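Amino Acid Chain and Its Fold in Token Form
===========================================
Structure side: the spatial fold of the chain, written down as a series of whole-number tokens.
Position: the record begins directly beneath this header, with no further notes in between.
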Amino acid sequence: MITFVTGGNKSGKSDYALGLLESLPGPAVFMATGKAQDLAFREQISDHRVRRDPALPVVEAGRDLPHALGMAREEYKAVLVDSLDFWLYLCMREGRADEFAAALLDTLKTLKGGGTHVILVSCEIGLSPLPASSETRAFLKKLGRLNQAVAALSDEAYLVVAGLPLALKKAEHGCIQAD
């Protein structure tokens, strides 16, 4: 099962995804993709760490997220990936975003019918103004495409706004229904 959770910055998407993870049978793992680049991001990582159960294992997947997910299915029944936007940024810095995105989608396709529930968190960027920087526009374009591909592949998708989840796509008894 694949669940996609998206929302704007500070929308509550990570907290919602963590609640979903905690409701699932274990064992579970948290896969972090971001690395602290500045003080504000270090504080954000620290805030997330405080809200998680200290017993929840954390894997710092970095750009090797597709491989880490593939390995996780052997040990875990539930995986939370937070977040795809930071992961894609790392991949873009290496100039290999398209290659890694394709590998991620292939991995998710193999996990979709298996016994591991994967929850993926990503920022929704489609509601923001068009940035002046061509580099930022390229990132937003790639993230928009990745989010669309993951949402299409997912069994469930949620948009979180002001801490409230809106079901975009729900799986019920094996049938996918749009709300």
